[in-house]
Amino acid sequence: MITLGIESSCDETSCGILSDGDNVLSNVILTQEIHSEFGGVVPEIASREHNKFIYEIVEKALNNAKVRMDDIDLIGITNGPGLIGALMVGIAFAKGLAMNYKKPVIAVNHIEGHILANFIVSNIKLPAVVMMVSGGHTELILMKDFGRYHVLGRTIDDAAGEAFDKVARILGLGYPGGPKIEKLAEKGDENYLKLPIAIRKELNFSFSGIKTAVMYHYRELSENDRELHRADIAASIQKTIADNLLYKVEKAVGTSKPESLILSGGVAANSYIRNKFEKFSSEIGVDFYAPPLKLCTDNGIMVAKAAYENYIRGTATYNLNPVPNLKLIEV
């Protein structure tokens, strides 16, 4: 069975083609670099860029996979969460393909796609505690089985990736902030700035206070001290975000007793955070999984995987309306 997945929820236009649920035939990703000029994603520009390149990306994915649309058995398309205009571009294109080639097309939850990216390359024992962390989402999830999820906690304000972006903007590093913070942090003292773990009694997250604390601290520094301590601040914010995530993960693991711990989403590409999670998992004797770096970012192959798994299990969603605030269905 060959599945084609299309992703267009934010600023990546991507198409992935998957055979039999685990054989990656192609995965083409175009990141819209134009947003770096504005310090963040501009929704209207994102929609226009998707519309401009989506045909080219899908065609390239088909060529790389050495298949034609006639060979495709199933189409998966992200219908949320994400930017409504960006979602609409992808959905309209997927509908067009489905109608023209008479193929079934099903909706995919972007968050589930990130989770299932891990299962393309690994045989993971369940249940698993999943830390899904990206620019737009920070969710702590108990995955009981495919399609069976329970959200243990989520951010009540900024996502972790969003906090990286906002602190990077304060430090004058540009967008996207996560990779720039990580690189600068290599030269800094992670204990320079002490920042607290928010909401200790619950499994929800809060990162807006971290950004505010950094902003006020940075304002008080002289120009010389800003230059002197920029790397220290980057290292401190990276450590604080990692500690916040792990604090809640440790609590969740203690109560859920999972077989595995999964890190997913764009922030999973951060090597400092990956190493912290791997060390923690080793200490408690739980298997740890994080996707290959190319599957951390938004991509079409994760959409294809989620579409495939839902289709063969009879849990597919055929409502293709865009849902910008779509939640993971809890079962």
From TrEMBL:
> Which parts form a coiled-coil structure per UniProt?
none
Q: Which InterPro entries match?
A: ATPase_NBD, Gcp-like_dom, KAE1/TsaD, Peptidase_M22_CS, TsaD
> What are the protein's UniProt keywords?
Acyltransferase, Cytoplasm, Iron, Metal-binding, Transferase, tRNA processing
Q: What is its EC number?
A: 2.3.1.234
Keyword field contains S-adenosyl-L-methionine: no
Which top class of enzyme applies to this chain?
transferase
Is Iron included in the keywords of this UniProt record? Answer: yes
Report any one BP term from Gene Ontology: tRNA threonylcarbamoyladenosine modification
**Which cofactors are named for this entry?**
Fe(2+)
Q: How is the cofactor bound, in the record's words?
A: Binds 1 Fe(2+) ion per subunit.
Which compartment or compartments is the protein found in? Cytoplasm
Residues the record lists as binding Fe cation: 110, 114, 298
Q: Which Gene Ontology terms of cellular component type are present? A: cytoplasm
Which GO-annotated molecular functions does the record name?
Answer: iron ion binding; tRNA N(6)-L-threonylcarbamoyladenine synthase activity
Chain's role: Required for the formation of a threonylcarbamoyl group on adenosine at position 37 (t(6)A37) in tRNAs that read codons beginning with adenine. Is involved in the transfer of the threonylcarbamoyl moiety of threonylcarbamoyl-AMP (TC-AMP) to the N6 group of A37, together with TsaE and TsaB. TsaD likely plays a direct catalytic role in this reaction.
Q: What is this protein called?
A: tRNA N6-adenosine threonylcarbamoyltransferase
Q: Which organism is it from?
A: candidate division TA06 bacterium
